[in-house]
Amino acid sequence: MNLISTRYAFMSAYLKGEESRSVTPEHIGEVLQRSATMQDALEIIGDTDIGEYLLDQPIKTFDDADEHLWMYLDGCLGRLEGFDMPPDMLRIARLYVEKYDVLNIRIALRVILKKVPSSMVPLGVIHRGGYLHEMSAAREKDELSLILATCNLGDYIRAIENINEKDAQSVSEGEVALKNLYHRKVLKAFRGMADGHLLEKAFKIGIDIANLQTVFRISIGGSGASGAPILTGGRMLSESTVQELLTLKMAEITGRLENTGYHMMAREVSKGYEKGGEITAADKVTEKHRFRMLKDLLSPRILSTSNMLWYLLLKELEIRNLRLTFKMLADGIPAVEIKDLVIAA
Questions:
Q1: Residue 301's closest CA among 196, 160, 181?
Q2: Cβ-count burial of 205 within 10 angstroms (0-12 exposed, 13-18 middle, 19+ buried)?
Q3: How far is the CA of 182 from the CAs of 41, 155, 157, 238, in angstroms?
Q4: Given a cut of 80, is residue 234 above it in pLDDT?
Q5: Global pTM value
């Protein structure tokens, strides 16, 4: 066996082993049924990797739990850097983490616009470089550009230079431009990788579904939005198709998606809204469909670069589900109110 295949074999085994120690739907179901406190929940997930970590932390409040959940994920990402893994897998991990840098840039722009402090996500190059507090305190766009240059994230400087940080519409358009720039960067990298076609397909499905979330929210809200800034580079939905969908009613959207892989999702969003009248029906349904589609595409693969992408998606989902359940317990929210928001792995 050559060196490259040995690396893939080791990393595939490691990532699948980590997957087996993740929080399962059964864990979450038991937490929702039996937990009255966060400590109850921690004991239920204590046989998982993240559960073992959290049980050793001084967690009393939701803020404590939130901090340590992000610290755990950062630790998982840092541990990956220590392996002699295939270069493509390392590139995927680093690109994936970069999306949190893009998110923190967007948060910083909103802080400058609204002049209201906001929490940032303690992940990414900016965080590891120790510049996250400085970014959260920035009050001018030029301050952001300086931090990006220092953190070798100069690709994003040009995107924010075109933003009028005092204008809400310009900031909104700039956020989409930042995400599109990041997407182009990732897709370009995928094209040169082993199993790149699979990675590209998965990433483009994510872009499609993010656009459909916007389409569904606008339709449910009762107002068209032709010409609104949208994400580019989707798999099944062209930019012109998304712009058309933004002008349609929910029933028309469902019909328009009939020959795509998103028809059932649109039907569920429509039925969910009709039943409960909640605009959040769009996010509940689309997130579950997104994860199911990506799981079917990526999870069965072995000795593949896709193992890394699937691992990262799974860990992110684990953090999302636990943040929801811990928030429920900390605030005394009935489990039934978040049950539909939890996504089963």
A1: 196
A2: buried
A3: 36, 9, 12, 18
A4: yes
A5: 0.91
